[in-house]
Design brief:
Arc Repressor Mutant, subunit A; 3-stranded antiparallel β-sheet; globular; mainly alpha; single chain
């Protein structure tokens, strides 16, 4: 029930913010959001520009920034420090796995 509610109600702001699922599914496909135990594999993450470009291809009439802000506010995604531009990853690996299905 938690995951279904998250996908159907929480990340769309009751249908007013389209595209959240698209962002999450694309990011989930990038790989695990936690580093390997030995630290050799960094967590999967995507840059702001990469997410925006993919989003515009799939939802040309939707507002990427609004959808992304909702995902950050709901604490589904988090910002990863970077030197060039913001990068994003899942806060919880189990949620990434749900959107990978």
């Amino acid at each position: 029930m938690f995951f279904a509610d998250l996908e159907q109600n929480q990340i769309t702001a009751n249908g007013t913010v389209p595209g959240g699922s698209t962002i999450l599914r694309h990011l989930a496909a990038q790989g695990e959001s936690i580093p390997s135990p030995d630290g050799t594999t960094p967590p999967a993450r995507l840059s702001h520009s990469a997410l925006a470009q993919y989003f515009q291809q799939t939802h040309p009439d939707a507002d990427f920034e609004t959808a992304l802000e909702l995902l950050l506010r709901r604490e589904v995604l988090e910002i990863v420090e970077s030197t060039d531009e913001p990068h994003y990853k899942f806060q919880v690996e189990l949620i990434r796995q749900w959107f990978l299905r």
